[in-house]
Amino acid sequence: MSTVFEICDYASWFCLMAGGLFCIIGGIGLLRLPDFYCRTHGATITDTLGAGLILLGLLFQSVHYLFDAQGNWQTDAWLIPVKLLFVGAFILCTSPTSGHALVKAAHADGVSWVQEGDDAVSE
Amino acid sequence: MTMFAITMLAILITMLLALSRAALGPTVYDRILALNMFGTKTILLICVAGFLYGRPDWLDIALVYGLVNFTGTIAVCKYVRYGNLAGDEQRHNR
Fold first, then answer.
1. A19 to chain B: closest CA residue
2. Of A42, A70, A88, B34, which is most buried, counting CB atoms within 10 Å of its CB?
3. DSSP, residue by residue, A9-68
4. pLDDT at residue A119 above 80?
């Protein structure tokens, strides 16, 4: 059973570190990209790859709650991965919806975007 | 437990970047976008903190934060676009 725990720990390390990295990359994109529509890309990349990888890493970690050291099934721990999946599914549903509503509102309000030849320095 | 601490640090850095965009943002939509991202990062932070402290029951709180965050973003979008939350007549004010 300890081998399973070790494998899940390594997978969890990888997923959590990659997710944190993608979060920071998206944050830098939100701060540095030149106009609003580009910044939407930077913000939504953290909702798919960042949140997805971090929640996957936590899903690997929930093995520690599902089984004890002898490999016995803990009956009341099944809610933890189910709740993690709910959080992930909810983020995957709502993030594109709110992003779409936001971009549509901005476009209808006439927010301009960077044209070719503009000085694309972040404000 | 180190991995949870490092992940929380990364999420906190991202929240700081989003907050600075919300403070800088030239249009109101930049600020809403940054706050939306801040809310998503709050959900992740609560999840990771629950595992860090060994209390995964906090995932319930994360779920509620997700609901509130989505509803809040849509409500603020509608408010900015139409000027009120009740009707949908086109009163433009930025």
1. B7
2. B34
3. HHHHHHHHHHHHHHHHHHHHHHHHSSSHHHHHHHHHHIIIIIHHHHHHHHHHHTHHHHB-
4. no
Domain boundaries, chain B: 2-93
pTM for the structure as a whole: 0.86
Share of chain A above pLDDT 90, in %: 39
Min Cα separation B24/chain A (Å)? 8
Distances (CA, A) of A41 to A28, A100, B54: 11, 11, 34
Instruction: With CB atoms and an 8 Å threshold, state whether A50 touches B77.
Output: no
**DSSP code, position A73:** B
B30-76 pLDDT tens trace:
999 999 999 999 999 999 999 999 888 899 999 999 899 989 888 88
Question: CB of A16 within 8 A of CB of A55?
Answer: no
Nearest to B34 among A30, A83, A94 (CB): A30
- The reported pLDDT for the residue numbered B56 is 85
C-alpha dist (Å) from residue A12 to A1, B1, B9, B33: 17, 11, 16, 29
The CATH number given to B2-93 is: 1.10.287
Closest C-alpha to B59, from A88, A97, A8: A88
3-state helix, strand, coil split of chain B in percent (to 5) is: 80, 0, 20
Pick the closest to residue A15 from B62, B41, B10 (CA basis). Answer: B10
For residue A70, give the DSSP letter. Answer: T
